[in-house]
C-alpha cells in the first residue's frame, strides 16, 4: 500500500500499468470510456543494430540503439525497485524520487528540448529487428552496424529499465495532464539502448548481468552508497562476506528479536539502518574463512559444497547463521525488559542503536570463536546480568569496545 501510494503520488496515472501487473489484470481486460482497446501487435521504431562481435557481450546477446516515444516506454516499462512489491533479495534500484521527477519535468517544459543521453533497457527475447525487407536480422551474421526497425510488442511490463527511470517517468501522465508534456510524451525523441537476451537465458544470469551493468553506469557518477553496493553484491558476488551478511540481516529484520526494528525499505521510519551492521559486524562473523566465523561450525559436506560454489548450500548456510544469531539475540532480549529492548530515543528508555546491535553481534562472534555455538538457555544464563549494563556509556562506532565490556562484565562475570 505504501509503495503504490508513493508511486501514484509521484507519477500519477502512469502508475496504473504496474498496479495492473500487481493485481494480475491483463491489458485486454482494461477498458477506457466503456471500450476495451485492441492489444497485441507491434510498433516499429528505427534503430541501429551492433554486430555481436563488437558488443563484447555474452554470445547471443543483441544490442540495439533506437529512438522511441516516452509514451511507448511508459506503457511497457517495469523497474525492479528494492522497495517495491516484488519481494526479492536481488533487487537494488532505488524508489523513484518525486523531487527529481518534478525537476526533470520542469526542465522539459522550460528548455523544450530532448535529452541527449540515452536510457538503458532490456527488451523481450521475441523483439524483432527487421531490415528494409522485413527480415529479422541476426547480429552474429553482420560485421558492421546495421539499420533496423525495432518492433516493440504492445505488451505492458515487458521493457525493463536498467538506467534512466527518472528521465522516462518525467513524462508521466498526470491526473490533470500538462498539455506540453502530453505533446512531448508522444514524440519519437528518447534515445534508448536496448539489450535483448537469448531466449533460454536464465533469470539469474539476466539479473547478474543487469546488476553489474547498473553498478558500472552509476559508479561513474556519484559514489554508490554502501547499501546499494551491498544489494548488488548479493547478485554479482554472492559468496562475499557482505553479500552473506546482507542476506542474513534481511532475515533478522523479518523474524526474531530484531523483527520490525531494522530498515527493510525506503518507507520504514524509526528503525535502524543496516549497511554498517553488515559491514562492521556481520561480515567477519559469517565469512567463509577464518576461525572466528560461524563457517567453522557447519557440517563438512556443507562447507565443501559452498567452497565449490554451490548456491543451494550457500542458502543453507545463510539459514544456519540466521538461526544461530537469533538464539543469541533472543537471549539478550529475554534479559532486558521490553522498554529497554526498543530503539533509543531522546525521551524513551530503549537502548537499541546501530552501535548496540553491532556490539551484540561482535560479542556473539567472540563467544563463538572461543566456545563454539550454544543453545538459547545457555546464552540466556550467561547474559543474565545484562540489565545492569551501562549501554549509555558507549557512543557512535564504539561497538567493539562495548562488546569487550559486555564479555568481561556480563558474559564472563
Question: Could you characterize what this model shows?
Answer:
The protein is of the alpha+beta class. Helix content is 43%, strand content 11%. It contains 16 helices and eight strands. It has an eight-stranded mixed beta sheet with strand order 3-7-4-8-2-1-6-5. Helix 9 crosses helix 10. The two termini are 49 Å apart.
Task: Detail the topology: elements first, then pairings.
Layout: H1 2-11, H2 16-23, E1 42-50, H3 52-55, E2 62-68, H4 70-76, E3 77-78, H5 98-111, E4 119-123, E5 128-130, E6 146-153, E7 159-163, H6 165-169, H7 179-185, E8 190-196, H8 203-219, H9 226-236, H10 241-254, H11 275-286, H12 300-307, H13 311-334, H14 354-371, H15 376-382, H16 399-411
Parallel strand pairs: 3-7, 4-8
Antiparallel strand pairs: 1-2, 1-6, 2-8, 4-7, 5-6
What keyword list fits this structure?
single chain, 413 residues, alpha+beta, eight-stranded mixed sheet, 16 helices, 8 strands, 43% helix
Task: Give a summary of the structure in a few sentences.
Helix content is about 45%, strand content about 10%. By secondary structure, the chain is an alpha+beta fold. The model has no long low-confidence stretch (mean pLDDT about 90).
Derived structural class: alpha+beta
Portion in helices = 40-55%
Query: What is the number of domains?
Result: 2
What is the CA-atom radius of gyration, in angstroms?
26 Å
Rounded average pLDDT: 89
**E-strand count:** 8
